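Kindly inspect this one:
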Amino acid sequence: MPYAPRQGEDKAYYENKSSDIKTVSDYTGLNFIEVWGLELFEYWGYLHDAVVWNCSLNDAGKDYLEEAYIFSQKEPDRDKLRAKLGGDKNGK
């Protein structure tokens, strides 16, 4: 178990290869073996829901989810842009 605390340093030098499985396990109540037995799309669905749930528990996570939602949009919200910039549908 690697451990070497250093004051003020927040770097991770070791990779946690089971963190996604742990996230799904905590969210679903399944053990690791049961998580490994899930179908791929079922696993990804649970992982998505678990991350969204965990992020929704605090303000920083909610901000992250809002930014992720905005980033994922393909079309602009024209009504909000018009309200912010002024004008109507005819460009006036």
